[in-house]
Write a structure and sequence with these properties.
Helix content is 27%, strand content 22%. It is an alpha/beta fold. The chain has one domain: Rossmann fold. It has an eight-stranded mixed β-sheet. Strands 6-7 form a two-stranded antiparallel ribbon. It binds S-adenosylmethionine. S-adenosylmethionine (SAM) binds next to helix 5.
Length: 275
Protein backbone atom coordinates (compact mmCIF):
# COMPACT_ATOMS: atom_id res chain seq x y z
CA UNK A 1 0.00 0.00 0.00
CA UNK A 2 1.41 3.43 -0.80
CA UNK A 3 1.48 5.70 2.24
CA UNK A 4 1.19 9.46 2.15
CA UNK A 5 4.30 11.43 3.07
CA UNK A 6 4.18 12.29 6.78
CA UNK A 7 2.45 15.51 7.81
CA UNK A 8 0.99 16.29 4.38
CA UNK A 9 -2.77 16.96 4.11
CA UNK A 10 -3.26 13.38 2.85
CA UNK A 11 -1.33 12.06 5.84
CA UNK A 12 -3.45 14.05 8.34
CA UNK A 13 -6.65 12.74 6.72
CA UNK A 14 -5.49 9.12 6.73
CA UNK A 15 -4.16 9.50 10.30
CA UNK A 16 -7.54 10.63 11.57
CA UNK A 17 -9.37 7.81 9.73
CA UNK A 18 -7.04 5.14 11.08
CA UNK A 19 -6.97 6.56 14.62
CA UNK A 20 -10.79 6.73 14.70
CA UNK A 21 -10.94 3.07 13.69
CA UNK A 22 -8.27 1.92 16.15
CA UNK A 23 -9.77 3.63 19.20
CA UNK A 24 -13.18 2.08 18.48
CA UNK A 25 -11.92 -1.48 17.92
CA UNK A 26 -12.48 -3.61 21.05
CA UNK A 27 -10.14 -6.33 19.77
CA UNK A 28 -7.26 -3.87 19.39
CA UNK A 29 -7.95 -2.30 22.80
CA UNK A 30 -7.92 -5.82 24.31
CA UNK A 31 -4.46 -6.43 22.76
CA UNK A 32 -3.21 -3.28 24.49
CA UNK A 33 -4.92 -4.14 27.77
CA UNK A 34 -3.12 -7.48 28.15
CA UNK A 35 0.05 -6.48 26.26
CA UNK A 36 -0.46 -8.91 23.38
CA UNK A 37 1.43 -8.46 20.10
CA UNK A 38 -0.45 -6.13 17.75
CA UNK A 39 -1.99 -7.17 14.42
CA UNK A 40 0.57 -7.02 11.59
CA UNK A 41 0.69 -3.59 9.97
CA UNK A 42 -0.77 -1.72 12.97
CA UNK A 43 -0.23 1.98 12.34
CA UNK A 44 2.14 1.50 9.38
CA UNK A 45 3.27 4.92 8.16
CA UNK A 46 1.71 6.64 11.19
CA UNK A 47 3.09 8.41 14.24
CA UNK A 48 3.00 7.20 17.85
CA UNK A 49 -0.56 8.40 18.60
CA UNK A 50 -1.73 5.07 17.11
CA UNK A 51 -0.07 3.46 20.16
CA UNK A 52 -0.54 6.11 22.83
CA UNK A 53 -4.31 6.57 22.43
CA UNK A 54 -5.35 2.90 22.45
CA UNK A 55 -2.86 2.10 25.23
CA UNK A 56 -4.30 4.88 27.39
CA UNK A 57 -7.92 4.01 26.50
CA UNK A 58 -7.34 0.33 27.35
CA UNK A 59 -6.48 1.45 30.90
CA UNK A 60 -9.36 3.93 31.39
CA UNK A 61 -12.54 2.88 33.15
CA UNK A 62 -16.06 4.09 32.34
CA UNK A 63 -17.98 6.13 34.87
CA UNK A 64 -17.44 9.31 36.82
CA UNK A 65 -13.98 10.11 38.08
CA UNK A 66 -11.73 13.14 38.28
CA UNK A 67 -9.60 12.80 35.18
CA UNK A 68 -6.91 15.27 34.13
CA UNK A 69 -5.54 15.40 30.59
CA UNK A 70 -2.16 16.97 31.34
CA UNK A 71 -1.00 18.56 28.07
CA UNK A 72 -4.26 18.33 26.09
CA UNK A 73 -3.36 15.47 23.73
CA UNK A 74 -6.96 14.27 24.17
CA UNK A 75 -8.47 17.56 23.02
CA UNK A 76 -9.93 16.24 19.75
CA UNK A 77 -13.71 15.92 19.11
CA UNK A 78 -13.36 12.41 17.60
CA UNK A 79 -11.69 11.23 20.81
CA UNK A 80 -13.73 13.09 23.41
CA UNK A 81 -16.98 11.73 21.95
CA UNK A 82 -16.01 8.17 22.98
CA UNK A 83 -18.45 6.74 25.57
CA UNK A 84 -15.62 6.15 28.05
CA UNK A 85 -15.31 9.94 28.54
CA UNK A 86 -19.05 10.44 29.20
CA UNK A 87 -19.89 11.70 32.67
CA UNK A 88 -16.30 12.13 33.76
CA UNK A 89 -15.43 15.37 35.50
CA UNK A 90 -12.63 15.86 33.04
CA UNK A 91 -10.16 18.75 33.03
CA UNK A 92 -7.77 19.55 30.19
CA UNK A 93 -4.67 21.50 31.19
CA UNK A 94 -2.32 23.10 28.70
CA UNK A 95 -0.33 26.32 28.30
CA UNK A 96 -2.70 28.18 25.97
CA UNK A 97 -6.11 27.84 24.26
CA UNK A 98 -6.25 25.64 21.15
CA UNK A 99 -8.55 25.71 18.10
CA UNK A 100 -11.05 23.25 19.55
CA UNK A 101 -12.86 23.27 22.87
CA UNK A 102 -15.53 20.90 24.22
CA UNK A 103 -17.00 22.75 27.21
CA UNK A 104 -20.50 21.79 25.96
CA UNK A 105 -19.59 18.18 26.87
CA UNK A 106 -18.82 19.25 30.44
CA UNK A 107 -15.06 19.42 29.98
CA UNK A 108 -13.22 22.18 31.86
CA UNK A 109 -10.06 23.84 30.58
CA UNK A 110 -7.17 25.10 32.69
CA UNK A 111 -4.54 27.25 31.03
CA UNK A 112 -1.52 26.91 33.26
CA UNK A 113 1.95 25.46 33.58
CA UNK A 114 2.26 21.84 34.70
CA UNK A 115 5.06 22.98 37.00
CA UNK A 116 2.54 25.01 39.00
CA UNK A 117 -0.90 23.35 38.78
CA UNK A 118 -3.63 25.53 40.34
CA UNK A 119 -5.52 22.60 41.94
CA UNK A 120 -5.56 21.21 45.46
CA UNK A 121 -3.57 18.18 46.60
CA UNK A 122 -5.11 14.80 45.76
CA UNK A 123 -7.88 16.19 43.53
CA UNK A 124 -7.59 13.79 40.56
CA UNK A 125 -8.18 10.03 40.60
CA UNK A 126 -6.42 9.56 37.25
CA UNK A 127 -4.13 11.64 35.05
CA UNK A 128 -3.36 11.02 31.38
CA UNK A 129 -0.18 12.70 30.15
CA UNK A 130 0.32 11.77 26.51
CA UNK A 131 3.56 12.92 24.83
CA UNK A 132 3.75 16.07 26.96
CA UNK A 133 6.29 15.65 29.76
CA UNK A 134 9.13 15.62 27.21
CA UNK A 135 8.11 19.14 26.13
CA UNK A 136 8.42 20.69 29.61
CA UNK A 137 11.46 22.99 29.72
CA UNK A 138 11.87 22.98 25.93
CA UNK A 139 10.67 25.26 23.12
CA UNK A 140 6.87 25.46 23.37
CA UNK A 141 6.60 28.67 21.32
CA UNK A 142 4.78 26.84 18.48
CA UNK A 143 2.05 25.81 20.92
CA UNK A 144 1.81 28.82 23.22
CA UNK A 145 3.82 31.79 21.91
CA UNK A 146 7.26 33.30 22.52
CA UNK A 147 6.88 33.46 26.31
CA UNK A 148 7.11 29.67 26.32
CA UNK A 149 10.43 29.27 24.53
CA UNK A 150 12.88 27.48 26.82
CA UNK A 151 15.99 25.76 25.65
CA UNK A 152 16.75 22.26 26.69
CA UNK A 153 16.23 22.16 30.45
CA UNK A 154 16.78 18.40 30.82
CA UNK A 155 15.52 17.96 34.39
CA UNK A 156 12.68 20.48 34.29
CA UNK A 157 10.14 17.69 33.68
CA UNK A 158 10.71 16.62 37.31
CA UNK A 159 9.00 19.79 38.55
CA UNK A 160 5.92 18.88 36.47
CA UNK A 161 6.09 15.28 37.72
CA UNK A 162 6.16 16.49 41.35
CA UNK A 163 3.05 18.56 40.66
CA UNK A 164 1.27 15.67 38.89
CA UNK A 165 1.93 13.47 41.92
CA UNK A 166 0.74 16.18 44.30
CA UNK A 167 -2.65 16.61 42.56
CA UNK A 168 -3.14 12.83 42.24
CA UNK A 169 -5.23 11.13 44.95
CA UNK A 170 -3.60 8.38 47.03
CA UNK A 171 -3.95 5.16 45.04
CA UNK A 172 -4.56 7.19 41.86
CA UNK A 173 -2.68 6.49 38.64
CA UNK A 174 -0.67 8.47 36.14
CA UNK A 175 -0.83 7.16 32.55
CA UNK A 176 2.25 8.55 30.85
CA UNK A 177 3.67 8.16 27.36
CA UNK A 178 7.00 9.46 26.02
CA UNK A 179 9.14 9.17 22.87
CA UNK A 180 11.87 6.68 23.77
CA UNK A 181 15.24 5.50 22.43
CA UNK A 182 18.60 7.25 22.26
CA UNK A 183 18.72 10.48 24.24
CA UNK A 184 18.03 13.35 21.82
CA UNK A 185 17.50 17.07 22.29
CA UNK A 186 14.77 17.76 19.72
CA UNK A 187 14.52 21.51 20.47
CA UNK A 188 10.74 21.20 20.92
CA UNK A 189 11.20 18.33 23.34
CA UNK A 190 13.66 15.68 24.49
CA UNK A 191 13.60 11.99 23.69
CA UNK A 192 13.93 9.86 26.84
CA UNK A 193 16.55 7.12 27.10
CA UNK A 194 16.79 4.39 29.74
CA UNK A 195 18.78 6.60 32.13
CA UNK A 196 16.27 9.44 32.01
CA UNK A 197 13.35 7.02 32.28
CA UNK A 198 14.85 5.39 35.38
CA UNK A 199 15.34 8.85 36.90
CA UNK A 200 11.72 9.69 36.12
CA UNK A 201 10.38 6.58 37.87
CA UNK A 202 12.67 7.15 40.86
CA UNK A 203 11.62 10.77 41.09
CA UNK A 204 7.89 9.85 41.11
CA UNK A 205 8.42 7.04 43.63
CA UNK A 206 5.39 4.93 42.57
CA UNK A 207 3.80 2.26 44.75
CA UNK A 208 3.36 0.25 41.54
CA UNK A 209 4.81 0.67 38.05
CA UNK A 210 3.99 -0.91 34.70
CA UNK A 211 6.24 -0.17 31.71
CA UNK A 212 5.37 -1.16 28.13
CA UNK A 213 7.39 -0.37 25.00
CA UNK A 214 6.34 -0.29 21.35
CA UNK A 215 8.61 0.06 18.34
CA UNK A 216 8.05 1.39 14.82
CA UNK A 217 9.25 -0.52 11.74
CA UNK A 218 8.47 -1.03 8.07
CA UNK A 219 5.47 -3.15 9.08
CA UNK A 220 4.06 -0.56 11.48
CA UNK A 221 4.13 -0.56 15.28
CA UNK A 222 4.73 -3.65 17.40
CA UNK A 223 5.04 -4.60 21.06
CA UNK A 224 8.71 -4.51 22.05
CA UNK A 225 10.91 -4.14 25.13
CA UNK A 226 13.19 -1.52 26.60
CA UNK A 227 16.46 -3.06 25.36
CA UNK A 228 15.19 -3.47 21.79
CA UNK A 229 14.05 0.18 21.73
CA UNK A 230 17.21 1.63 23.29
CA UNK A 231 18.77 2.79 19.98
CA UNK A 232 15.59 4.14 18.37
CA UNK A 233 16.01 7.56 16.72
CA UNK A 234 13.37 10.24 16.28
CA UNK A 235 12.57 11.29 12.67
CA UNK A 236 14.62 14.45 12.94
CA UNK A 237 13.38 16.10 9.73
CA UNK A 238 9.87 16.19 11.26
CA UNK A 239 11.13 18.59 13.94
CA UNK A 240 12.25 21.07 11.26
CA UNK A 241 8.80 20.77 9.75
CA UNK A 242 7.06 21.45 13.12
CA UNK A 243 9.41 24.37 13.84
CA UNK A 244 8.56 26.00 10.50
CA UNK A 245 4.79 25.59 10.19
CA UNK A 246 3.72 26.71 6.73
CA UNK A 247 7.33 27.41 5.73
CA UNK A 248 8.48 23.85 5.18
CA UNK A 249 8.29 22.16 1.80
CA UNK A 250 6.89 18.77 2.74
CA UNK A 251 6.99 17.52 -0.84
CA UNK A 252 10.78 18.04 -0.87
CA UNK A 253 11.42 16.86 2.71
CA UNK A 254 14.13 14.19 3.13
CA UNK A 255 11.73 11.57 4.49
CA UNK A 256 13.40 8.38 5.82
CA UNK A 257 12.86 5.10 3.93
CA UNK A 258 10.64 3.68 6.70
CA UNK A 259 8.38 6.77 6.44
CA UNK A 260 8.66 7.29 10.22
CA UNK A 261 6.70 10.46 10.95
CA UNK A 262 8.04 11.16 14.48
CA UNK A 263 9.16 8.77 17.28
CA UNK A 264 10.38 5.26 16.41
CA UNK A 265 9.72 3.92 19.89
CA UNK A 266 7.43 4.91 22.68
CA UNK A 267 7.41 4.14 26.41
CA UNK A 268 3.99 3.78 28.08
CA UNK A 269 4.08 3.96 31.87
CA UNK A 270 1.40 3.41 34.48
CA UNK A 271 2.57 4.87 37.78
CA UNK A 272 0.41 4.34 40.86
CA UNK A 273 0.71 6.77 43.77
CA UNK A 274 0.99 5.12 47.17
CA UNK A 275 -2.00 5.23 49.53
C1 LIG B 1 2.34 17.02 21.97
S1 LIG B 1 1.63 18.53 22.33
C2 LIG B 1 -0.03 18.15 22.43
C3 LIG B 1 -0.73 19.06 21.51
C4 LIG B 1 -2.00 18.64 20.85
N1 LIG B 1 -3.15 19.12 21.58
C5 LIG B 1 -2.15 17.18 20.47
O1 LIG B 1 -3.22 16.76 20.27
O2 LIG B 1 -1.20 16.43 20.30
C6 LIG B 1 2.18 18.83 23.90
C7 LIG B 1 1.47 19.92 24.65
O3 LIG B 1 2.17 20.09 25.88
C8 LIG B 1 1.92 21.40 26.32
N2 LIG B 1 2.93 21.77 27.29
C9 LIG B 1 4.27 21.79 27.12
N3 LIG B 1 4.87 22.22 28.25
C10 LIG B 1 3.88 22.46 29.14
C11 LIG B 1 3.87 22.94 30.48
N4 LIG B 1 4.99 23.25 31.12
N5 LIG B 1 2.67 23.06 31.09
C12 LIG B 1 1.51 22.77 30.44
N6 LIG B 1 1.46 22.31 29.18
C13 LIG B 1 2.64 22.17 28.54
C14 LIG B 1 1.98 22.23 25.06
O4 LIG B 1 1.24 23.42 25.20
C15 LIG B 1 1.37 21.28 24.02
O5 LIG B 1 0.03 21.59 23.82
Amino acid sequence: MSMPRPWTKEYIERRQDVLCRIIRDPAVLADFAVRRPLPAGHGAGLDERCIEYPWMLSRLKSGPERLLDAGSALNHPWLLELPVFAGKGMHILTLAPEGHCAWQAGISYIFADLRDIPMRDGFYTRIACISTLEHVGFDNSVYAGEAHRQSGLRDEYKRALTELKRVLAPGGELLLTLPFGRYENLVLAQQFDSTLLAELVESFGPAEVEKTFYRYGLDGWQLSDEAACAEARYARWAIDCFLNPGGYDLAAAPVDADLAPAARAVACLRLVKGA
